[in-house]
Amino acid sequence: YAKDEMLSLDRAAREAGVLLLNEIGVDPGIDHMSAMRVIDRVKDAGGRLVSFTSNTGGLPAPEANDNPFGYKFSWAPRGVLLAGKNPARYLKDEKVVDVPAAELFAHHWTAKIEGFGELEVYPNRDSLPYIESYRIDSVRDMFRGTLRYPGWCDTLKGIVDLGLLDEKERDLSGMTLAGMAAGLIGSDGTDLKGDLARALGLPIDSKVLSDLEWLGLLSDAPVPAGARSYLDALASLMLPKMQYAPGERDMLVMQHEFVAEYPDRTERITATLIEYGIPDGDTAMSRLVGLPAAVAAKLILQGKIELTGVHIPTIPEIYRPVLDELESMGIAFEEKTERI
Questions:
Q1: Phi/psi of residue 86, each to 5°?
Q2: How far apart, in whole angstroms, are the C-alpha atoms of residue 52 and residue 253?
Q3: Any catalytic annotation for residue 191?
Q4: Residue 70 in contact with residue 60, Cβ under 8 Å?
Q5: How much is the pLDDT for 31?
Q6: Residue 216: pLDDT above 80?
Q7: Residue 95 class from Cβ within 10 Å (0-12 exposed, 13-18 middle, 19+ buried)?
């Protein structure tokens, strides 16, 4: 992300005549560019944006969605889990909604994805800075979310409540997984599943408990070797059970929803990207993270992007040529516009 340390290099980069282009992957990256293309088009047509929602998720393709969590790792397990420790903030009906980290996974709802079906969405960090980044101070709603298959949030909320995302180093050597779980809730282990249900306030036949059991947390298997925290142990448990098998496809889903007001009408514009990995080839995640950066680098070298200084791809001089080339590769959003 283009943080203060990077932004402080803007003057030096301009004086040196070079471009330091940041946030040019998928999220951030394609999300910025595809959003700004619509936002600028609305403004050019005399409209103003009053609501913006952007949801993104990297997931198994439907035929590869074969584990209880509805998730497989296309990037580092630790990174996925640590993202669940972030608080969130967004704008709803002109009011700021703050979501504490401990309640992140309790704050979710259904998102309808055009051409796909229903997924689950929860807030992705702080959405408010994007009001300035996207130059849309007219919005009453501003939300950026993370997409998952239904059920993910409830199970992750249980994981958070048990303290399994704790990064504090501790000695877990010689301990079983059931012993570790029992220690988290002060159980003597004789009725571990029942104790977990009571600690989480869930029925014993809940999907959350069956997911934890599937993961192995109630077993007498040893805590994975080298685990030095509860988070380490959890990530080490998840990775072998939630990997992509040879030939399986991942999926990247991104959907923006804009509500634009014009003097004579109000429109809802939905822009959807669904990209699948190539069996036994590149994942959708790797392609959509890597190709925007590669395309931008090529355009800079060809002199087709002539900017200098520190930038993110929210201006036409960057997003238009990059999106045009991505579309020539088949990476394109489907748009739907309706009057409301």
A1: -90, 140
A2: 17
A3: no
A4: yes
A5: 97
A6: yes
A7: exposed
Residue holding tokens 């804009």? 258
pLDDT value of residue 2? 87
Mean pLDDT is lowest, of 75-79, 115-119, 217-221, for 75-79
Q: Which of 30, 27, 24, 23 lies closest to 333 in space, CA to CA?
A: 30
Q: What per-residue string of b and e applies to 153-163 under the rule 16 or more CB within 10 Å gives b?
A: bbbbbbbbbbe
Single out the catalytic residue among 4, 27, 31, 232: 27
Beta bridge partners of 334: 272
Side chain identity, residue 14: R
pLDDT, tens digit, 9 for 90 and up, residues 146-172 = 999 999 999 999 999 999 999 999 999
Q: Provide the 8-state DSSP code for 126.
A: B
| Tens digit of each residue's pLDDT (9 = 90 or more) over 266-312 | 999 999 999 999 999 999 999 999 999 999 999 999 999 999 999 99
Q: Which pair of structure tokens corresponds to residue 176?
A: 């079983």
Two structure tokens written together for 14: 């301009």
Whether pLDDT at 320 is above 80: yes
Q: For tokens 């300035």, name the residue.
A: 132
Our CA dihedral for 191, 197, 203, 209, rounded to 10 degrees, sits at -100
Domains of the chain: 4-79+86-147+250-339 (3.30.360.10), 163-241 (no CATH)
Q: 209 and 196 in contact (C-beta within 8 Å)?
A: yes
Extract the tokens encoding 292: 């925007």
Mean pLDDT value across residues 193-210: 97
Q: Give yes or no for a contact between 87 and 104, defined as CB atoms under 8 angstroms apart.
A: yes
Through-space distance between the first and last CA atoms of the chain, rounded to whole angstroms: 35
